[in-house]
Amino acid sequence: MGKVVVVTSGKGGVGKTTSTAALGAVLAQSGKKVVLIDFDVGLRNLDLVMGAERRVVFDLVNVTQGQAKLSQALIRDKRVESLFLLPASQTRDKDALTEEGVASVINTLREKFDYVLCDSPAGIERGAQLAMRFADEAVIVTNPEVSSVRDSDRIIGLLDSKTLKAEQGESVTKHVLVTRYDAGRAARGEMLSIADVLEILSVPLLGIIPENQGVLRASNVGSPVTLNEPTNAAARAYADAARRLQGDDVPMVTPVEKKGLLNRLLGRRVA
Amino acid sequence: MKLLDFFKRGGSAPVARERLQVLLAYERNNRNQPDLVAVLREEIIAVIAKHVQVNQDDVKITMDRGATTSTLEIDIHIPNAGIKASPAI
């Protein structure tokens, strides 16, 4: 039985889709069978970030409504053999997904895959709630910024009340993934530190992804950053996070500011 | 004092942390509960409307949440002509 992991955040634009792609790709590279499901009905983007936008024939809604078989809708990644994508629908009908339909798809995928990663839409509405509904674990993507942390807190509340696990008296295992972390700004007290975020949210840390230009380069070319530039700092942080998700004990490295010679000589940078 | 401020000016992150802690403490307590301010506002207006005609636009309600206590300010402009005749007994 595979694990169902929702990648969620509440706030938009914090890196859910990027993180789903990056984590999924390393998990698959390490030999796991992984499927990524895009739950953002109407605004699908995981296909684009994965570079599979021209290969979408059927989508999640087609499968839940019986217009296509699950095997027809799954897109196999061209780089990693054990990585698959189930794209979201472009329909504008927000009620296109039903709980029963999603349950059936997830239960089938859970039998065949080691990891089912659900890329949640932003917000706390139906789409986000369906994405987390059947999750065993949750990766809460958070930027060190007030509105993102507040929305993460709200999402944690939903994970503890609206998921099937919560209703059955169990709990979804939660992890915080801090993205777009700028070590220099945190050191200068201009950005919430990792300790601040963890103290406020009280959820264990899965990883710290530093702000990195390689992330945008990867999405430009349609490849998860972990495959596109595996040695870059963000990719390595995602790889560590993926190992922690599998239960490995990987020491947490807080990124430090790389100061150039000029900045060193000038001392503290003035904003 | 200004000089002290200059040296103390570390960054805005501690302010962010404190604001979040106060806000989230409140939001966690009030999750799945009716909004207290909305309830108070409606009930207070209902009581006053029994005696005077009050335009909804003339009611100003402000709330200031602190870490341990909050203040609720209700400012109602009652037109002098709006006092209803007391009901005949």
UniProtKB/TrEMBL annotation, chain A:
Gene3D superfamilies: P-loop containing nucleotide triphosphate hydrolases. InterPro entries: CobQ/CobB/MinD/ParA_Nub-bd_dom (IPR002586), MinD (IPR010223), MinD_FleN (IPR025501), P-loop_NTPase (IPR027417), ParA/MinD_ATPase (IPR050625). Signal peptide: none annotated. CDD domains: MinD. It holds the Pfam family CbiA. Residues 5-225 form the CobQ/CobB/MinD/ParA nucleotide binding domain. Keywords: ATP-binding, Cell cycle, Cell division, Nucleotide-binding, Septation. ATPase required for the correct placement of the division site. Cell division inhibitors MinC and MinD act in concert to form an inhibitor capable of blocking formation of the polar Z ring septums. Rapidly oscillates between the poles of the cell to destabilize FtsZ filaments that have formed before they mature into polar Z rings. PANTHER family: SEPTUM SITE-DETERMINING PROTEIN MIND HOMOLOG, CHLOROPLASTIC, SEPTUM SITE-DETERMINING PROTEIN MIND HOMOLOG, CHLOROPLASTIC-RELATED. Interacts with MinC and FtsZ. Belongs to the ParA family. MinD subfamily. This is Septum site-determining protein MinD. It comes from Aminobacter carboxidus.
From TrEMBL, chain B:
The keyword Plastid does not apply. Keywords: Cell cycle, Cell division. Belongs to the MinE family. It comes from Aminobacter carboxidus. It comes from the Bacteria. This is Cell division topological specificity factor. It holds the Pfam family MinE. GO terms for biological process: cell division; regulation of division septum assembly. Prevents the cell division inhibition by proteins MinC and MinD at internal division sites while permitting inhibition at polar sites. This ensures cell division at the proper site by restricting the formation of a division septum at the midpoint of the long axis of the cell. The gene is minE. The keyword Cell division applies.
